Amino acid sequence: MDDLTSLSLFEMLSGLRRGDFTSRELTLACLQRTERLEGRLHALITFTPELALETADAADRRYAEWRRDDPSAAWNLPALLGVPILVKDVFCLKDVRCTCGSRMLENFIPPYTATAVQRLLDAGAVVTGKTNTDEFAMGSSTENSAYGPTHNPWNLERVPGGSSGGSAAAVAARLAPAATGSDTGGSIRQPASFCGVTGLKPTYGRVSRYGLVAYGSSLDSVGVFARSAAEAALLYRQMAGHDPLDSTCARRPVDEVRLEGDGLKGLRIGVPEEYFIAGIQPEVEAAVRAAIGQMEALGAGVQPVSLPHTGYALPVYYLIAPAEASANLARYDGVRFGLREPAEAMWDIFFKSRGKGFGAEVKRRIMLGTYALSAGYYDAYYGQAQKVRTLIKQDFERAFESVDVIACPVAPTTAFKLGEHGDDPLAMYLEDVFTLPANLAGVPGVAFPVGFDAAGLPVGMQLMGAHFKEDMLLRAAHAYQQATGWHLRSPEL
Ligand code: GLN
C-alpha cells in the first residue's frame, strides 16, 4: 500500500468508505510517520498512540456496521469518521495531559474535553497527540515552549511560527491531515504562513472556547489548520456553532460553507496600502501582489482600501493582551491551579510556584499587564487602548462597506531562524503586525500559501472578511487553490 499519510483528507475519507484501508491502518501510518520525524521536528508535546488506536478501532466497527446495514446512506456517517487529527496543547482533552507549553501545567490532567475538540471527536476524528505551543500561546515562533522549540519542516533551522507552531508544522509534515489551533493575535495564520498550510481564524465567538485555556479573553478564537481551504472548511463546519457552556459563543446559526460556484467572480477585493509597509521582505510583497493579480484574472475586482489606524494595532494589542493575560493567569498560584513549590508561608508558595512554573515571556506579559491595569494607570493604558481598538474596528466596518474581503500579507517575512529574535521581544512582536488587527476587530481571517521565497520557504497570504463571513473567505481561498497549486507542495523530509 502507498504511504497513506500522503493522501488528502478527502482521499482518506473516501478510501475509508470504500474499504481500501481501515482507520487502524491509516492511524498507524500517521503514528509511524510521527515517530520517524519527531526527533527532527518536535511538533508534539504529548503523543497518544493507545487512545488513537482505540478510537480508530471504534471507527472501523462503525464502518463495518454501515457496510452491513445501509451502505447507500453515506450521509449517515459522521463527517470525519476514522481520520487522524492533532490538537494544540491548549485545548483540554479528558484524561490526557494539557501543558499549554508550560512547566506550570506539566502535570495537569483535565477532567473534561473542550467543546471544539469534542465536536471533532463526535464527528469521528482520531486524536493522535497534542501539539507544541509557545507557553500559554504567547509568542510567534514556538520558542517560548517550556518543552523546546518546534522546527519548520521546510528548513529545520527555521521556526514554524507561533504560537500554534506545532500544529502547523505537523500538518505541513503530514503527521496528520489537520489540527486545531487558537489565535489571539495571529497564532493560527502566522504559523500557517510559515509552514505553507491553510489556517482559518474564525470570527470572535463563532467557535466555542469552553475547554480552551484562556489567554486574552476578548481576543482568543478557536480555529483549524489543514492543507487546503476545502479541508479546513470541513473541520470548521464541525466545530462552529453555539455552545451553552461558553457565554461568549454566538447564537447565530452557522452559515453553510458552499465551496463550489463562483468563488472569485465578482468578489470585491480591497488591498490596504497600510499593510505593504517599509521593511516587508520584497519576496513576500511580490508573491502576495501576484496572488491578488491572479484573483483578478479569475474574476475578482481589486481596489485600494484604507485602514488608517493599522499602525496603532501593535501597541493596542500589547496592552490589551497582556492585561487580560495577567488576569487569566492569576489562577496559577500553586494553590488553586498549577505547579506547587512547597514553602512555609502562603506568599512564599505563590512566589516560588510562579517563579518556577512560568517562563520569561509569560512573566514579562504578567508584569506588563498588571502594571497597565493598576490603579491610576488603568484609564491611561487599558482604557485608552480599548478606545483606539474601537477606531480599528470602525476602520474594518467602513472598509467592508465597499469591499467583500481584504487581501494582504500574513507576516512581513517568511520563517526566520531559530534564535533570531531570542533577545529582542519587540522584534518578535513585530511579526504579528498584519494579524493582530483582525483579533482586535473580531473579524475572521484565512491564511494560505501563495509562493516561496528564494530560500525555499513558503509565503502566505491573508484574506479577512466581515464578521461571520467565513464561508466567503473559504470559498475565495478554495477558488484560488483550484486554479493554482501552491498548497499541494510538501516539504522533503
Ligand atoms: N504572537 C502573539 C502573542 O504573542 C499572538 C499569539 C496568539 O495569537 N496566541 O501574543
How would you describe this protein?
- With 493 residues, the protein is α/β, with parallel strands linked by helices.
- The protein has a domain at 2-264 and 484-488: Amidase signature (AS) domain (Amidase signature (AS) enzymes, Alpha-Beta Complex).
- 39% of the residues lie in helices and 13% in strands.
- The chain has helices spanning 9-18, 23-41, 49-69, 115-122, 165-172, 189-195, 229-239, 282-297, 313-328, 346-357, 360-373, 379-402, 425-430, 436-441, 470-483; strands at 44-47, 84-88, 126-131, 178-183, 198-201, 221-226, 268-272, 301-305, 405-409, 445-452, 458-465.
- α5 runs parallel beside α6.
- It is globular.
- The structure holds glutamine.
- The site of glutamine has 13 residues, from loops.
Question: What's the arrangement of secondary structure elements?
Answer:
Blueprint: H1 9-18, H2 23-41, E1 44-47, H3 49-69, E2 84-88, H4 115-122, E3 126-131, H5 165-172, E4 178-183, H6 189-195, E5 198-201, E6 221-226, H7 229-239, E7 268-272, H8 282-297, E8 301-305, H9 313-328, H10 346-357, H11 360-373, H12 379-402, E9 405-409, H13 425-430, H14 436-441, E10 445-452, E11 458-465, H15 470-483
Parallel strand pairs: 2-3, 7-8, 7-9
Antiparallel strand pairs: 1-3, 4-6, 5-6, 5-10, 9-11, 10-11
Helix pairs in contact: 2-3, 5-6, 7-15, 9-11, 9-12
The structure holds glutamine (GLN).
